[in-house]
Each structure stands twice: as structure tokens, then as C-alpha cells.
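Long-time lurker. I teach an intro course on protein structure, and each term I like to show students one example going from raw sequence to a predicted 3D structure in C-alpha cell notation. This year I'd like something fresh instead of my usual example. Would anyone be willing to generate the C-alpha cells for the chain below so I can use it in lecture? Attribution to the forum is fine with me.
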Amino acid sequence: MDTDLSNVTLVEHPVVARDLTILRNKNTPPPVFRSALGRIAIILAYHSLKGLPLRKVTVETPIQETDGYELDTEIAVVSILRAGLGLVDAVMQFIPEARVGHLGMYRDEHTHQPIAYYSKIPRNIDRHQVLLVDPMLATGGSAVDSITYLKNKGAKNIRFMCLISAPEGIRRIRETHPDVSIITAAIDERLNEDAFIVPGLGDAGDRIFGTI
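-- Reply from a regular --
Happy to contribute to a lecture. Here you go:
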């Protein structure tokens, strides 16, 4: 693979390897698919939230006062609709107070270009560490357009969390937004002529919501 992987975190874990196999299997039914996705999403969220700034606080244990820590930034998780919804809960388990935003993007079947149809972003997005989530990073079109949109709204710190990525999508983000780190569970071979990831797992949204 000749893709530059600087600023890319490839999460390798036995549970991830097992659950990716479940997700790739075309015969996996939606309830089992959602369960496996949820487990991987928790592991991805853990890695995606590393290195956040902390501030020291004092707390009183049943024995005595001691030093502790709170997050020193606000967190916003932004889902690229609709498949990104499958990754939001995992982040919320770590950061219940996180703000949640939604970006509606769909891919034109002929041009393979993303088209925005809906957006609802938390206020003061410039104060937040933004975690943009979408299961698949294929051409990178939706991700790049979403990152550009968020930056135009004032976002300064963005991380992109996905389940499976293609080298083409990674390169596109790195070329357009080199400051955005990517956290992924798999880097697959390539895109096919229909811009689907190979071997991939098909359409993540359809498989999450049972709309195949």
C-alpha cells in the first residue's frame, strides 16, 4: 500500500477482527450487523477520544481530598446521515454530555459526487472538538464536503472516525484537509467501478437499517 498513513490510526484488535468478519458476511442479518457494529464503534470511539485536553480539579473521596481531571473542551459528534447514526451511541457512552449534529449527504449514483440535503450543527462549533462519523470512507467525497462545511461553520478541531476506509478516500482527505486525523478499523484494497469499497461490506446504511 503506497497510501501515506501519517495522521491515520488503524485500530487493530481481536474483537475488531472478529466483528469485521461478521459485518462483511453478506448473510449477516441486520440485528446481528448492528450489534457487531456497536462493539467495534466503542473501540473506535475510545481511540478517537485520545489526547483530549484535561483540567485539574479537586474532589473529596470518602477518605480525603485528591486531585482529579475533567475534560477541558466541549465535544460534538457529527453524523453523516444516515449510516453515521450507527456510530453515534458509542461516542455518547464515553461523553454523555456531547452535542450531536447531523449532516445529510447522499451520493449521486451517476457522478458519485456527494449532495447535501440537511444540516443541523451545534452552536459555537468552534469551541468543540468535533468527531465526524461515517462507517465508510470510500471516495472521500462526502467526508471532504462535510469537513469543509464544518470548517466554514467555524470548526477548528476535527477528527474523522470510520469503520472501513479505501486508500482513495484516505488520500483525498489528506490532500484536502491534512489537519484532520482519521481513525479506522480497516483499510481495504480499492474502489470498484461503482465506487464501492473492495472487499468492503456493501451499503452500510442499508445493512444497518435493513433496507436492502
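Some talking points for your students: The CA atoms of residues 19 and 39 lie 8 Å apart. The helical segments are 14-24, 30-48, 85-94, 141-152, 167-176, 204-209.
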